[in-house]
UniProtKB/TrEMBL annotation:
It is an enzyme of class 1 (oxidoreductase). Residues 5-366 form the FAD dependent oxidoreductase domain. Transmembrane segments: none annotated. GO terms for cellular component: cytoplasm. This is D-amino-acid oxidase.
Length: 388
């Protein structure tokens, strides 16, 4: 019996954050993974490896779970603690969520710093299109994880804490003989091959991104970096079901990350078909990118921030899958006993796996150690003092 050794399957943000948490809490962990982000040069060849694509860690989008509130609050507070300790790639953004139609205030309004509805803001600071009239929504300060800096730092931190990454594919028939009594499944869409999932249909939401390298950080009146999600009326831009769809701009140190799209499909072999509208698109880098991502962002960036964006700019397209699983209860954060081992599952984070990564890791650690989360958070931060 090896009670203190834990094998984590998957080296995406869920696997790394969970393994780092457990390693710092005194377990001997090893990650088994068939792919590592740092070794992949063509991200578009692996759309199912979601951790190649997060635009940011802002607020949860395209995520479905009744645990959202608790996970988000824990995650945010842990990110703030890491930022105080200068963890690489974490900054504070002034983030705007803007709509061209009325919208109820979100539940998270009470958990965000400096939250203000649009009507309390000065009109010049609100992201708008040249033809925007009535705008709704809100702004707040939040943690942003600059992915090209944060994710490698997370990997380095895990290795520095004594964790190991073992490059290998895990197959179902390997599970009984894996050399640990606790397995943590963070294999994302790989879970469907490895384990029985109680759901019949497995929803993924495809997202298009455009990276504009070298574009400047956009700084707002208060000195914070600005980012936004902007949802025009459905008649201007909608998802395949006809619901209004957002575009966004997240400035990072390596340029802007522009989005977005939310095309739904069900995981099936050999291919996943996505519902798409016959919307207009630009051909960029050999991929069809919804033209709204450029046209609407261009209008907002010029009108509000006097910044330029053209289809002819140097732009790099990416297409990845957010693994939603299900729109009622997408997240799987539970455990089961198999082959005499306890298997903890941590997958189905939709478009919020980075945002919720610390919340999910602490939740699992609390189940494994039987310690409460505030105590675990304290212990973890003490350990971080030694490695940061
Ligand atoms: C376009 C787009 C934009 C997004 N924007 C945001 C955002 O702004 N904020 C946010 O929080 N989230 C965002 N997300 C979502 C986020 O990327 C995911 O929720 C998150 O990356 C999921 O991480 P994961 O570690 O659970 O899974 P993954 O990153 O998919 O990792 C799965 C891991 O398991 C490994 N694996 C799979 N099968 C096996 C096997 N059999 N054996 C061994 N290893 C295996 C894989 O190699 C990989 O390492 C976005 C996603 C997309 C696509």
């Amino acid at each position: 019996m090896n009670f203190d050794k834990i094998i984590v399957i998957g080296s995406g943000v869920s696997g790394l954050t969970t393994a780092l948490t457990l390693q710092l809490l005194g377990y001997e962990t090893v990650i088994y993974t068939d792919k590592e982000a740092g070794q992949i040069s063509d991200k578009n060849a692996h759309p199912e490896f979601a951790s190649l694509f997060p635009a940011a860690s802002v607020i949860p989008h395209s995520f479905y779970s009744d645990q959202l509130k608790e996970l988000f609050r824990t995650s945010q507070s842990f990110f703030y603690e890491l930022r105080k300790r200068f963890f690489s790639g974490l900054s504070i953004h002034r983030h705007f969520e803007i709509f061209e139609f009325e919208q109820d205030e979100p539940e998270y309004r009470n958990w965000m710093l400096d939250f203000h509805p649009v009507m309390e803001l000065s009109p010049q600071e609100i992201p708008r299109r040249s033809c925007s009239q009535n705008l709704y929504g809100w702004a707040f300060n939040c943690i942003f994880a600059d992915w090209p800096r944060y994710f490698p730092a997370l990997t380095a931190c895990y290795k520095q804490s004594g964790g190991h990454i073992n490059r290998r594919t895990v197959r179902t028939e390997d599970l009984p003989t894996l050399p640990a009594d606790i397995l943590v499944n963070c294999s994302g869409t790989g879970s469907l091959e490895l384990f029985d999932d109680p759901l019949d249909e497995q929803l993924v939401m495809r997202g298009h991104l455009l990276h504009k390298p070298g574009a400047p950080l956009i700084i707002g009146a208060g000195g914070n970096i600005i980012s936004y999600n902007y949802t025009p009326k459905a008649s201007v831009y909608s998802d395949p079901s006809g619901e209004a769809c957002d575009v966004y701009c997240y400035p990072r140190e390596d340029g802007w990350m522009l989005g977005g799209s939310r095309e739904t499909g069900y995981l099936s072999s050999p291919t996943t078909e996505f519902s798409k509208k016959n919307a207009e698109s630009y051909q960029i880098g050999g991929l069809a990118i919804p033209s709204a991502i450029i046209d609407i962002n261009k209008d907002i960036l010029e009108t509000t921030y006097h910044q330029s964006l053209r289809p002819s700019d140097e732009l790099y397209p990416f297409i990845g899958y957010r693994y939603v699983r299900n729109k009622e209860e997408g997240l799987r954060l539970d455990h089961e006993t198999m082959y005499g081992k306890t298997v903890y599952h941590n997958y189905g984070h939709g478009g919020a796996g980075a945002t919720l990564s610390w919340g999910c890791a602490l939740d699992l650690a609390s189940r494994i150690t039987s310690k409460n989360k505030p105590r675990l958070q304290e212990l973890l931060l003490e350990e971080f003092e030694h490695i940061l």
